[in-house]
Amino acid sequence: MDTDKILTELDYKAVRSSGAGGQNVNKVSSKVVLGFRPEASAALSDEEKALIAERLANRINNDGMLILQCDEDRSQFRNKDIVTRRFLQLIENALKIQTVRKPTKIPRSVIKKRLEGKRHNADKKQGRRKPDF
């Protein structure tokens, strides 16, 4: 993955933010919407495109566009920076290959301790019963 090349392929759009904020919200387009087409990207290999399509399928719309948005800050510049960092983190996590967990054998001492605990509880409950003459 070539991050510098990917950053040139991103589409940014500034729109008016919703919610409270008064006059600033009404006249300033501070919300940033980031768009990216993974299938059309030249910075990604075919395997990386397949991984992104599989792992981010719920975030890619019908047009094949991955869309992220940010309106956390009043500044358009800071929102653009936040959404770009969020996008790179998302792509990085989608391309990360998880290592396969090797199942390990339960140690003898752990098994022994568990059985001793069960025996202790059984003896405790046995002692609470009425004596059988």
Beta percentage is 5-15%
Report the helical percentage: 40-55%
How does the helix and strand content classify structurally? Answer: alpha+beta
CATH names the topology of the domain at 3-95 as Double Stranded RNA Binding Domain
Task: Give structural notes.
It is a single chain. This protein is of the alpha+beta class. The protein has a domain at 3-95: Double Stranded RNA Binding Domain (2-Layer Sandwich). Helices cover 47% and strands 12% of the residues. It is built from five helices and three strands. It has helices at 3-8, 23-27, 46-55, 76-95, 108-128; strands at residues 11-15, 31-36, 66-70. Strands 1-2-3 form a three-stranded antiparallel β-sheet, with helices on one face. It is elongated.
Question: How does the SSE layout of this entry go?
Answer:
Elements: H1 3-8, E1 11-15, H2 23-27, E2 31-36, H3 46-55, E3 66-70, H4 76-95, H5 108-128
Antiparallel strand pairs: 1-2, 2-3
